[in-house]
Amino acid sequence: MKSFSIQHFFILHIFLYLFLLNLSKFNPDALSDKVSLRIDKFSDFVKEPVGTRRQGGKLNAHGMSWHLEAFINESNTVKYLGMSLNCSNNSKIDPNWNCFARSFFIITKLLNICQSANEDSVELAAVFVPETPCGNRRNSGPPRTDILTVKSSGDESKSDVPINKNFLAAHSDFFDVWLDRDTAEGCSVSIDPPDTVEHFNKMIDVLHLGDYVLNDENVENVLNLADKFMVEEVKGKCLKFLASEHCKIATMKKFQIATKYDVALGEYILQMIQKSDRTMEAQKRGKE
Hints:
The protein is an alpha+beta fold. Helix content is 35%, strand content 27%. The protein has helices at residues 42-45, 107-116, 165-170, 173-181, 197-209, 219-228, 232-243, 251-261, 263-287, and strands spanning 4-7, 13-14, 21-22, 33-40, 53-55, 59-61, 64-75, 78-88, 98-106, 121-128, 147-152, 158-162, 188-191. Strands 5, 6, 7, 8 and 9 form a five-stranded antiparallel beta sheet that branches. The protein has a three-stranded mixed beta sheet with strand order 1-10-4. A three-stranded mixed beta sheet has the order 12-11-13, with helices on one face. The chain is elongated and about 95 Å long. Residues 145-216 form the BTB domain.
């Protein structure tokens, strides 16, 4: 029996905690992967209640698990077939991380197409193309694992940090090179005092979760590690925090940190200091 095949390419860019997916424009040199979901007795399936789901088989590609899911949805009395491309991590990465892309089809239109083709089987398919540097490049040595061992030369402690290494490499020139030359069995980095393994974990948290995990106590150490390991996004978030009203670090200390890592921010804080001095002088004159 032939089946009617719906090849739907999601017009969408996903920038979540892993890598960029270009699902609408194909690079002829890129390596793509495909997941599919076949629904037999389609006319019976679409009669099921709203919320009914059917999941396709999983495909492990680029360090992630991919699968398609079909589900019945309804809006304004019109029933739709939802098609969802889901991408999930394994248990070693942040368990809260996931991404997906969706598209919807009007069920009556699909049934008309099936009836005109005298078929009752539908195959949903999605092709995804990870773009460098975010995708896991094939034929470039051992695959990247999802655990990075961080060693402290200060107290000789070490910690296994859960991280998607493709994502980390995409945000750091240092790790992009380091993870390519390292082996899956012995992937580790060392840090020196006053930085600690805890500070490294905070840097990863900032990369994944944003600058709300920063505070007056950890921002300098996180900034130092971000600068050392060339994680520019985290560095930018640290500098932004230093310039915000949430940062209560003494102005002169803040100025010292800023001038070490960012000239523009240092000049901005210097202007704030000068403005504060002029205000204090004006207040003194007013009292005399």
